[in-house]
Amino acid sequence: MRLIFLGPPGIGKGTQAKLLSENCSLAHLSTGDMFRSVIEQETEVGLLAKSYMDQGKLVPDRVVMEMVQERLKAPDTACGFIFDGFPRTEPQARGFDELLSSLELSIDKVIALMGDDRILVERLSSRRSCSECGRITNLIFSPPKIEMKCDHCGGDLVQRDDDKEEVILKRLEVYRNQTKPLVEYYDEKGLLIQLSGIGTVDEVAERIEEHLDKKTTGESC
Ligand code: AP5
Ligand code: MG
Predict the structure, then answer these.
(1) Which of 69, 96, 109, 188 places its Cα 20 to 30 Å from the Cα of 78?
(2) Other C-beta atoms within 10 Å of 4: how many?
(3) pTM for the complete prediction?
């Protein structure tokens, strides 16, 4: 199964993609995580990406496409994948279509999660992630048992640099202008499943699984 998770910052793409990828043995491919990893390694691409991400802007399409093309060569993607946060512009979507067709692959479904800005800002300003295992958590909606420590591995919880209010507002604007048009792009292709991202994590996960073909999601490699 090959899926795309689409939606505004904070709607829960990463949270839901992680759950579904674990349940269905799919590779979880988050372009945001890929950039955060090269930023940590202080590579040239990382430095370039950081200059855009810190301002809430999108990294240039060419850079994103090269990284995705490289990532798809890894063997873990052979069993299927979930793209989280990619594609994000129409040129990326068209480039991805071409890339997939050159690999004789196709997308099965695009899950677009929707929600209003007020809840997105609230979720993002209270988001924390583990500096050790990368798990995402939330100080309001899933508070850690020990203050600022990861429930999973005990690592320190940290805030993402782009989760400051002024950067969050910019990311929401960029989403509306550059990414939201992809909802129509995939609807026209008959691939779109549009769902509310509001409710608890479990409620949203249930909603997603209900809308996916149970037979396909039950398959393992
Ligand atoms: P990226 O990392 O993709 O960030 P984003 O799209 O802004 O989305 P987020 O990761 O902020 O939110 P999410 O939907 O994953 O929500 P989460 O599950 O964490 O991209 C970052 C930057 O990288 C971009 O701004 C851009 O610069 C660059 N970039 C990345 N991809 C690119 C591309 N393709 N092209 C160009 N540039 C690119 O949840 C948020 C919080 O809410 C968490 O605390 C979570 O615990 C909580 N939560 C989740 N679900 C629920 C729920 N149901 N109820 C209560 N709380 C919940
Ligand atoms: Mg995310």
Answers:
(1) 188
(2) 26
(3) 0.95
User: Which of 35, 55, 173, 198 has most ligand 1 atoms within 8 Å of CB, for mutation?
Assistant: 35
The structure tokens 């998770």 sit at: 5
User: What is the 3-class SS of 170-208, one letter each residue?
Assistant: HHHHHHHHHHCHHHHHHHHCCCEEEEECCCCHHHHHHHH
Distance 53 CA to ligand 2 centre (A): 13
pLDDT at position 221 over 60: no
Give the residues surrounding ligand 1 with Cβ less than 6 Å away: 7, 9-15, 31-32, 35, 52-53, 56-59, 64, 85-86, 88, 92, 123-124, 127, 136-138, 141-142, 162, 171, 199-201, 204
Question: What CATH superfamily is the domain 2-26+79-115+173-217?
Answer: P-loop containing nucleotide triphosphate hydrolases (3.40.50.300)
Indicate the pLDDT class of residue 216, thresholds 50, 70 and 90.
low
